[in-house]
Amino acid sequence: MRCSVSRPVELSAVSTSLSATGRSQIAEAGPQSLCAREPHVPAERLVAEMVPPPRFDSVRFSTYNPDQNQPSQAQAVTVLDAFAAGLGGAHASGGGKRRWFARKPAAPTGPRGVYLDGGYGVGKTHLLASLWHATPAAPEYKAFGTFVELTNLVGALGFQQTVRTLSEHRLLCIDEFELDDPGDTVLVSTLLGKLVEAGVALAATSNTLPGKLGEGRFAAADFLREIQGLSAHFRPLRIDGEDYRHRGLPEAPAPYSDEQVAKAAYATEGASLDDFPHLLEHLARVHPSRYGALTEDIAAVCLTDVRPVPDQSTALRLVVLADRLYDREIPVLASGVPFDRLFSEEMLAGGYRKKYFRAISRLTALARDAKGLVSP
Description:
A five-stranded parallel sheet has the order 4-5-6-3-7, sandwiched between helices. Strands 8-9-10 form a three-stranded parallel sheet. The protein is α/β, with parallel strands linked by helices and about 375 residues long. The chain has 14 helices and ten strands.
């Protein structure tokens, strides 16, 4: 589990005085404030924590419940189970440590990975985590992380050290694989190419086919070679279906009043309480790779005055926070506008629309989980 890492995250307190945030300080006996946290994550912890998040600790192929009306879901289980079984051996290249005079193994022919493509809520992360668990290797030879966590690892360790570290792995799982800028395209294309040469198997999830990455976000045509190179590493596996988080469930509860949210925060041990606009400002000062650490030991997130996000950069940061809250199964109780009104129509029609719909889906599920925090 991620929380089992012995070295804790360092959390620096930030002033929550009226001059700093525009609101009075929360009482010491009251809930915590995410705005009062500045997490610092040691580089070695970034590597040690590349495992499935707590929500997916116990998932397996056997616990995935395929929709009988969507044959591609059952087919994905069969394909991934066989893929995991084929990763046995001392190392992904099959040779373990080589002698100094041994030839470098030939680069694998054909795709060395699987790429789970499908809409939000069809269970892609469940399947990716199940693949990680099913691969016959010790945890230290398997890595699981989001795309943001992978690029941050390169930033923390440096490119060459990241290649050396991950080259010892048998499997690298990348969740939420999405190219947001040209720099990421070149970086990840080069990194994955090096890892495939070293014999590392790849698996990724995304809402976008590998050959379509970057469309609507930057001049993807200018980086066609890198995108095609990425695509060549993967066998696309389409997973159809509707969002399981809302399958047969009632609509998410309507937002509560500020008073109800504050009362629930004070009554819930380990809860946080923040004004939504000020939290968005704080997220701009914390690197997205640290959003998981930002929510460490938080039992519930309570937000007042939720309103539509003002711009694309803010919206993308909120998406990452929603993902980390969902991974950690942290309920979200809020006042203000409903979560399906967070993003403008223009945003929902743009190149990041799939990210925004995923965030709405996950926040809605977490709002439903928070319903029991409010007294009748």
